[in-house]
Amino acid sequence: MSGTVTPILSVFPTRGLVDNKFKVMVENLPPGLPVTLHSLHQSEDKDYWEAYGHYVSDDRGTVTVSEDSSIGGTYTGKETMGLLWSMRPVPGSRTGLRMRKMDIRTPMVVLISVYRGHVVEGFRERLPMASVVTERWYMAPGVQRIDVREGGVRGTLFIPPGPGPFPGVLDMWGGGGGLVEYRAALLASHGYVSMALEYLSPDELGTDIGLSYFEKAFTIIQEHPLVISDRVGICGLSLGTAVTLTMAAYSNLISPRCCVCISGSHVLSISESVFVAFQEVNKNVHKVRVDEQNRMIWRDMILPIPSDPSKKVDVGRIKCPLLLVCGDDDQNWATVESAEDIAKMMRAAGNEHLLTTVTYHDAGHLIEPPYTPHIKASNFIVQHTRQKVVLLWGGETKPHADAQEHSWEKILAFLRQHLYPCPSSAPQAKL
């Protein structure tokens, strides 16, 4: 580069919610110059993640990520957010990593840089032409975060800014256990009083978590003074789906207004307790497969889908709108087969009109909020045995990223439709 020409790299907005797109542009380059745009993030576990795309500046000396095609790198084509969703651990990292934001009070900080030429390795040893730091937040300004320790229930409540009242959402993750807050924080940023519920931590919660525990959690949201009491929904992923369906079908104490179930199944009822459900599914542990990389595939444990109604949640009893989200390359749980059986059961019961199913081709199990890096397999601790394994989640990077973006739009639209008294009045989240 000539000493008199300085490239200008801009990221707009530099600060935003994780589900908001940004615009990355490089100006003041010589026309026809090959460059590499690179993103770098250090996770809370101190692991480095990166993504990069190869571009050639146009006749104005400009590269615009949303309009120009990457011709190589961790993503190709016109991909506005490819620098986020195609992130992967840098070479030499620990194996089996999964990127998850655990402290949502701080942003995900990403360094975006532009390098001369089409670079594929050794980014940290090279001097970039320009760099910009961007912040990606799960929690919008004004959202309150409140620890919940009430009636034995453990979780975190997130309250949107403003006078309210607001609709509510009970948010549950899966068999990995612990308290996972980032989706609930993002839901609050979109105008819902949401509670991230902890329900699978044997050391603290005991071993007999049953339907009453989840009913208490739902009631805590429902009775909050800033919540519209008859407009509370439930969102669950994986094992959280089993909990959601069980509550919607069998509870005599609570009535969810709507339910969102991501990557889950009805072949696992928690009407007795979570651990009884584990014991039941573990009877099929002989069906677990291991691939050539020693990654465990669990999906066959619930196949074939039982014909005996007593061995699955009676979804014909559900009386509220239900959204199912699944990927057809889910290697952890047989979600597509489950969705088909759920539709069959609801059709027979006359409540299929309440069901919406979206299935994504080549998407895996971990369908998360938009632009979260796709993880095909990762380390996993089986909560009830404390065994450490590597699970194959499935999915291909680009289709899975598209599924995360599209499904999040569907989920937000579904919640607006069924939880907001006037859907058009739902606030638009932004920083």
Quickly describe the structure.
The chain has eight helices and 21 strands. With 431 residues, it is an alpha/beta fold. The strands form five sheets. Strands 10-11-13-12-14-15-18-19 form an eight-stranded mixed β-sheet, with helices on both faces. Strands 2-9-8-4-5-7 form a six-stranded mixed β-sheet. Strands 1-3-6 form a three-stranded antiparallel β-sheet, with no helix packed on it.
Description:
The two termini are 36 Å apart. The chain has 431 residues and is an alpha/beta fold. Helices cover 20% and strands 28% of the residues. The longest helix has 23 residues, at 397-419. The protein has two domains: 8-136, Acyl-CoA thioester hydrolase/BAAT N-terminal domain (Immunoglobulin-like); 144-425, 3-Layer(aba) Sandwich (Rossmann fold). The strands form five sheets. An eight-stranded mixed sheet has the order 10-11-13-12-14-15-18-19, sandwiched between helices. A six-stranded mixed sheet has the order 2-9-8-4-5-7. It has a three-stranded antiparallel sheet with strand order 1-3-6, with no helix packed on it. The chain contains eight helices and 21 strands.
Q: Sheet bearing the most strands, described?
A: 8 strands, mixed
Low-confidence stretches: none
What oligomerization state is this entry in? single chain
CATH topology of the largest domain: Rossmann fold
CATH class designation of the largest domain: Alpha Beta
CATH superfamily of the largest domain: Alpha/Beta hydrolase fold, catalytic domain
- Number of discrete domains: 2
- The CA-CA distance between the termini, in Å, is 36 Å
Output the radius of gyration.
23 Å
| Order of helix and strand elements from N to C terminus | EEEEEEHEEEEEEHEHHEHEHEEEHEEEH
Estimated helix fraction: 10-25%
